[in-house]
Design goal:
Distance between the termini: 23 Å
Low-confidence stretches: 89-100, 366-379
Radius of gyration: 24 Å
Helix content: 25-40%
Order of helices and strands: EEEEHHHEHHHEHEHEHHEEHHHEEHE
Strand order of the largest sheet: 7-6-8-9-10-11-12
Number of strands: 13
């Protein structure tokens, strides 16, 4: 083991005895009391020394036998220690391990730093990145929102990102984070595949799965170009996902309103059918409206502001990555919505409907599973000097 205090967390002494790692309340940790000698030893945890060398340094500083192990145990329990020996080449601090740079891993170094903050285990960041590489995600829709979502997921290290869409790229579908201007007139699916490839860390092709078998879908992100299929999700396309147990997340922009969610966990949280039935309970005339909106030719020119679409894509990608990394984002069984011009994000739960055959109602017991995963508050630990 080569212990390293996670470099993503800024360090500051609150006084002569207490040191704070991190700035934001969600992840900051205060340790103390810390005597100057112990503080000097902490300064040596930079990933360049193994345990044998650190033990020699602790002895040289006059610290008692066993103090090093106790100190590392406390720091690890507080989520502050990374093991530099298990980080991928290029995954450590910018000035560490010269000559080990890997173009692919270099591109996700900032992502590794973020993962190290979120996942407290010393090898948590490396394991999370490896898990992302084994995931297969399908993005259904390559408009301003969908193309950007696909690019972001690919850039974040997701192993296989597929984009499904038809037709050709229109001039108003171009965006800085999505399809480029030179893609206008090309087939959307082909242009999106190139975008995903360019966004992939190091520009490498996805690794072939072991044994030659295609991995199952980890997640489907539904990002229809006109936004109606995200704001008023159609239960029919979701039937196959419910049948196969495939999680799916809705995101899009409709008439200058953006929506992210719900993230549907089949049999566990409310689905598109639940949304439709609940709306019909509130408004008996409701079933007539989606039928009219969906009939006829697709809307020729969606009202999709480029900055709003980019914001929606960023939030949707972040929620997708949180789920792929093993957490339940706040879109699980809920919808986040924002409208121009005030841009106030608001959230509303999406509850299972008793008449829906999806089975989510049976899974709901007491507080619904759509509750957001609480943000971890700052912690304080005590450290004997």
């Amino acid at each position: 083991m080569h212990p390293m205090v996670k470099p993503a967390l800024r360090r500051a002494w609150r006084n002569l005895q207490y040191v704070q790692f991190g700035v934001t309340p969600a992840h900051a940790v205060v340790l103390g009391p810390v005597d100057p000698t112990t503080g000097s030893l902490i300064g040596l945890f930079d990933g360049t020394r193994g345990m044998e060398l650190l033990a020699a340094e602790a002895k040289r500083l006059g610290l008692r036998e066993g103090h090093l192990e106790e100190l590392l145990g406390r720091l690890a329990a507080a989520g502050l220690i990374a093991d530099a020996s298990v980080l991928p080449p290029g995954g450590g601090p910018p000035d560490a391990a010269p000559g080990r740079a890997d173009p692919e891993l270099d591109a996700v170094r900032a992502d590794l730093a973020s993962l190290s903050v979120v996942h407290p285990a010393p090898d948590g960041a490396a394991r999370a990145l490896a898990a992302r590489r084994a995931q297969r995600v399908q993005v259904r829709g390559a408009g301003r929102v969908g193309a950007a979502v696909a690019a972001l997921l690919s850039a974040a290290g997701v192993g296989r990102v597929e984009v499904l869409d038809s037709g050709t790229v229109a001039p108003w579908e171009v965006s800085p984070g999505g399809l480029p201007a030179e893609a206008v007139g090309e087939r959307r699916a082909a242009a999106a595949r190139r975008l995903v490839g360019r966004s992939r860390p190091g520009g490498r092709s996805p690794r072939s799965p072991d044994g030659g078998e295609e991995p199952g879908l980890s997640l489907v992100v539904v990002t229809p170009r006109d936004g109606l299929g995200a704001y008023v999700p159609d239960p029919l396309p979701a039937e196959s996902w419910l049948a196969t147990g495939t999680p799916h997340l809705y995101a899009g922009v409709l008439e200058a309103t953006g929506v992210v969610g719900p993230l549907v966990l089949p049999g566990g949280t409310a689905c598109a059918g639940c949304i439709q039935r609940e709306q019909a309970d509130r408004e008996p005339v409701w079933p007539r409206l989606p039928a009219q909106w969906r009939s006829g030719a697709p809307h020729p020119l969606p009202a999709c502001d480029v900055s709003l679409a980019t914001a929606v894509a960023g939030l949707a990608a972040a929620h997708a990555l949180a789920f792929l990394d093993g957490d339940l984002p706040s879109s699980t069984g809920a919808r986040w919505e924002v409208s121009l011009p005030l841009l106030e994000w608001r959230s509303a739960p999406v509850r299972p409907h008793p008449a829906c055959p999806c089975g989510a109602r049976l899974a709901a017991r007491g507080e619904h599973a759509s509750a957001a995963v609480p943000c971890r508050k700052g912690r304080q630990d005590t450290m004997a000097g």
